[in-house]
Amino acid sequence: MRAFADFIAEHELVDLPLASAFFTWSRGESRSRLDHFSISPGWLDLVTEVFQRAWVHSESDHCPILLDPRLESWGPPPFIFKIAWLSSPHMEDRLGEWWVSCLVEGPADVVIGHNLRFVMKELEEWVEESKKQLVERKQWLENRMEELVALDESGFGGGGGVGGVGARRRRNRIEALNVDGLIVSSEEGVSAAVVDFFSSLYSFDNISRPLPEEVEFNSLSLEECSKLERPFEIEEIEKGVFSLAKDKAPGLDGFCLAFFQACWSVVKNDILRFFREFHEGMSLDRDDTLLFCAPDIVKIMNLKATLRCYELITGQRSNFQKSRLYALNISAKEACNFAKILGFKLDSLPSSYLGLPLGVGRLNKSLWDPIVERIERRLETWKRNLVSKGGRLTLVKSVLDNILVYYLSLFKFPVNVSLRIEQIQRRFLWSGSDDKKGIPLVKWEKVCISIKNGGLGIRRIKGFNQALLCKWLWRFGEEESSLWVKVIGSYYGFLSGKWEYDNIFAKNGLTVARHFKHGARA
After folding, report:
1. Strand bridging mode 182-184 / 38-39
2. Cα–Cα nearest to 418, from 467, 363, 462, 369
3. Which candidate, 482, 502, 484, places its Cα nearest to that of 494?
4. Can you tell me the distance from the alpha carbon of 351 to that of 151, in angstroms, rounded to the nearest whole number?
5. Cα torsion 355, 358, 360, 361: sign
6. CB neighbours (10 Å) of residue 457?
């Protein structure tokens, strides 16, 4: 899979849109897009109007696809509320009439969703009618322009169009500038003053900046923390709506904040009711909980009753749609029965939790393939021609900051995976243009030196990984009362909260003990 991704990136192949279908392979409830054409950019320069069409299949689980060079209509574009529509006469009144004309009952989110769809439909019809009027207006203006041009050419225009062009040039010309109290009027002086101004604007002197240790960060008091769960107030909701920019969209419905600000007097009651119902229902996830239960029907029923009592006492709802049941050493029939009773979704190990592998034994090479593929997508070949070397350096560093830190702080990376990722970083940083292969200007070891010492400040993955893992060694020796420290100490025979071991009885316990002691000395 990685070799195929390298081939696609190296040749900069393009995956064309697929028409008339979303998937090309299906088996049972599984769906995927496995079949597709990969086109080179040079071929697209010759044939611009091309797309992939999926055919209906009956016997095979794969869907045949056809490369069609004809122009295809991709359907209507998604709805986007235009702020310019509000400048139309009586538009706010028209929007209010459409909103109140919807007589839908139910929860606030259902009412708001229905009203937005109805307003969207009415707006689309209004836009189509406005387009017809604009076409008529445009035709009238074009006819009027032809009359004015004919009048100008006949000598009755009072000066002609050339004088108008000259007037615009004189109006746009900078005759003089006031630079620190001095009037500069020469062309060379004006040009030099403009260059100096923007040079100083986008540069800064070396100034001393405060260190994080020197800054006192504000924190919430206990009283302020308690206010976070109080009911929403009208003033803070209105402040939140009107403090945002008008072109900000809260969701995928296409309605930006300008719509809600302009129609606040009409939509206000429905929005306030939505916040009130949200606070009363309070379906936010507080904490993720891991529960263990023996495969006994009575205990499963007791667990279900316990969760229900928790909802009644606290007013918090358990999100069963996101809950999973992992069954170990029981039959599939029993597992399905328990999942049905609890209302959980049945899952199996190995799985993933918060992006990390769960229930995986030895971390084999295939575990790291998705991480490497994410990095390859972040540092795709086509992006190198769009940014400077400084931009490439920023993207290379962002791979460590945004993708790898989470994994580096929990797992020890294999050497071959670290070298593979650094190879992708080097290739992206030093890559040249399409017709010229990039040549490394300096050794990678020098690039990874800190900026203060003359390098570019890119961290080596192996050293960064070891530094982040040392945090757990330090916490193991400091957090003696933590549950995870007691579990590890009990399983591997360590003295509680110490880096010393007393009795090694677990599998691989001696290896773990040596690793802990070696890390503690480091």
Report:
1. unpaired
2. 462
3. 502
4. 79
5. positive
6. 13
Gap between the Cα atoms of 481 and 477, Å rounded = 10
Strand 345-347 with 351-353, pairing: unpaired
Written as six digits, the tokens of 208 are: 């001393």
Q: What is the DSSP letter of 204?
A: -
Least confident of 50-64, 295-309, 505-519: 505-519
Packing angle, helices 461-478 and 509-521, rounded to 10: 100
Q: What's phi and psi for 153, nearest 5 deg?
A: -70, -25
Cross-strand partners of 177: 184
Structure tokens at 459: 């961290």
Angle at which helix 91-100 crosses helix 108-151, to 10 degrees, equals 150
pLDDT in tens, 311-339: 766 656 677 777 888 888 888 888 888 88
- For 258, the enclosing helix (H) or strand (E) is helix 257-262
Residue 182 CA to residue 370 CA, distance in Å, equals 63
For the chain, domain boundaries:
2-68, 79-153+220-281, 297-348, 365-467, 479-521
Is 433 strand, coil or helix? coil
Q: How far apart are CA 343 and CA 321, in angstroms?
A: 8
